[in-house]
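Below is a filled-in request sheet from our internal design queue. Each sheet records the structural input a requester submitted and the sequence that came back. We keep these sheets so that new team members can see what a complete request looks like end to end.

REQUESTER: design group, bay 2
PRIORITY: normal
MODE: inverse folding
CHAIN LENGTH: 235
BACKBONE (tokenized):
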């Protein structure tokens, strides 16, 4: 569903991505770990078509993003670290607005149900988003993503700043995405959450994917230890 083939991108003299190969299949949750500047966001931005690779390919459902950006984007839902919403509109009004942009046509009632399924409290649905917490805004983001019914979900540090309960609820929602056969690629600094939710975990550094492991094969301590080994190694 998601494939990076020798994805390479340089900014000035700096190599942000060095021949990155990555594959995320249907129903998989792939968590990308790595220090600041490792290239996680650049990878996601290549799949979104925000960044053009110098060489290599980013494929979404077999569609080359660089050649057919709009077509590829139809298959993608994206949740950034901070979901940008209209503060003077309610959660439901935001969802109605952003959903209309996808060209799909769910009824208001159906969209309301998407919001509730994303975990937004019923009494918040009609309140202005300006008064929402970060976790509540993320839930609207999840509802926008689920209502789009995209095959692929891209997330860039979606749980940063969420309290543990909200972060846990977020994991449950990701699991639901995965159970529906969607592919999920999530960049995160949260080793604990990655271990909890991922099917596979990749560690990036200096634009390279250093290792990929099945989450089931490591416990939290082992993951932290593998991560630290890579961070302290010369390369
Ligand atoms: N538009 C840009 N112009 C110049 N350099 C950039 C640009 N985008 C990314 N970079 C550089 O590419 C490298 C990788 O950045 P990227 O944002 O992909 O890292 P990251 O792993 O997501 O980091 P973080 O965990 O801090 O979000 C960094 O050195 C960054 O400064």
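RETURNED SEQUENCE:
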């Amino acid at each position: 569903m998601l494939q990076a083939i020798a994805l390479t991108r340089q900014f000035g003299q700096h190599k942000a991505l060095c021949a990155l190969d990555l594959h995320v299949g249907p129903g998989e949750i792939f968590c990308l770990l790595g220090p600041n500047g490792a290239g996680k966001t650049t990878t996601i931005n290549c799949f979104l078509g925000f960044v053009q690779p110098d060489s290599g390919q980013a494929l979404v459902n077999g569609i080359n993003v660089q050649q057919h950006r709009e077509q590829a984007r139809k298959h993608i839902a994206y949740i950034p670290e901070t979901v940008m919403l209209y503060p003077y509109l309610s959660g439901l009004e935001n969802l109605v607005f952003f959903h209309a942009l996808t060209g799909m046509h769910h009824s208001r009632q159906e969209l309301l149900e998407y919001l509730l399924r994303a975990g937004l409290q019923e009494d918040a649905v009609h309140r202005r988003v300006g008064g929402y917490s970060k976790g509540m805004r993320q839930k609207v983001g999840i509802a926008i993503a689920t209502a789009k019914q995209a095959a692929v979900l891209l997330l860039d540090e979606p749980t940063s700043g969420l309290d543990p309960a909200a972060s846990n609820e977020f994991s449950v929602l990701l699991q639901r995405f995965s159970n529906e056969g969607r592919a999920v690629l999530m960049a995160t600094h949260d080793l604990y959450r990655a271990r909890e939710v991922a099917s596979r975990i990749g560690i990036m550094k200096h634009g390279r994917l250093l290792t990929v492991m099945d989450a089931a094969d490591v416990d939290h301590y082992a993951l932290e230890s593998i991560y630290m080994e890579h961070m302290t190694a010369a390369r």
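SHEET NOTES:
- Residues 11, 14, 16, 34, 36-42, 187 surround adenosine-5'-triphosphate (CB under 6 Å).
- Strands lie at 2-11, 14-24, 29-33, 55-60, 63-64, 76-79, 152-156, 183-187, 200-205, 208-214.
FILED BY: M.R.
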